[in-house]
Amino acid sequence: MSVFLELGQRPDEPGPPIHGPATYPADVTERLSRDATGIVGRYPDARSALLPLLHLVQAEDGYLTPAGIAFCAEHLSLTPAEVTAVATFYSMYRRTPTGDYLVGVCTNTLCAVMGGDAILDTLQERLGILAGQSTPDGRITLEHVECNAACDYAPVVMVNWEFFDNQTPSSARDLVDALQAGQAPTPSRSESLCTFRETARTLAGVDDSIGTDTAGPGPATLAGLRIARERGMSAPDADAPASDSTSDAPGHDQAEATESVKDQPAPAPSAEVPARGQTADTDPTATDAS
């Protein structure tokens, strides 16, 4: 059976240019400037504060606007083009108005295989919106996201970048139902769930609304370590002196063999290397490796 996985941005999620208000009212500029001064002061080079400043203005508008871009440029002595180049590179910076809860469904390889696409389809139907859109009340914005680096608990749904592990279409539906009802479920790895703007202020370093990680690494994360300990495996001692002789070292012959063929082309399909889609069950010339 063939499985087709489409990766990357979906056709219904165009990346719009940064738009919105061009300037902030004077009182907003003054308030943001106080926060910005504290942020910039933490860095020996002012431009190093660009990422947290982008989170700061995103917390103000719920997404990046020309006003936010201009604010960052002015405080860091950068051009708006330089700020925009950074802002449009990172997916955590939003270019469309974002709801109180940004619900991201991972549809990258492992999560997709484990049911991520089915979860996204279920949430689109439940919320009556497509990925990249917000509910009419502005409470939830749905998006499909690339790998969340949480493959050990696939499929994963994130809400404002908090993990909800081992999801199913049913549990994900319950999750968004609770959010729409004004109930913030507890994430899998922290003690509380904040709104999108509160999360952005925390990432900017001017608030501490996000709860701390209360779960720690779980069994799935530690599976490799457990197996290594059961088999008496360990990493080489980093402080051990290097051996003067490598000719008798374990793996030396393999290293030499690898070096000798590294520039050669990959082998063509054969009895030992079947063509794509061909297995020992279907190839009459394939040999039994056992």
Automatic annotation (TrEMBL):
Belongs to the complex I 24 kDa subunit family. It comes from Mycolicibacterium obuense. Its cofactor is [2Fe-2S] cluster. SUPFAM superfamilies: Thioredoxin-like. Residues 234-249, 279-290 have a biased composition (Low complexity). One of its GO terms (molecular function) is metal ion binding. This is NADH dehydrogenase. InterPro entries: NuoE-like, NuoE_dom, NuoE_N, Thioredoxin-like_sf. Keywords: 2Fe-2S, Iron, Iron-sulfur, Metal-binding, Oxidoreductase. Residues 250-262 have a biased composition (Basic and acidic residues). The gene is nuoE. Residues 1-20, 233-290 are annotated as: Disordered. Pfam families: 2Fe-2S_thioredx. Its EC number is 1.6.5.11. NCBIfam families: nuoE_fam, PRK07539.1-1.
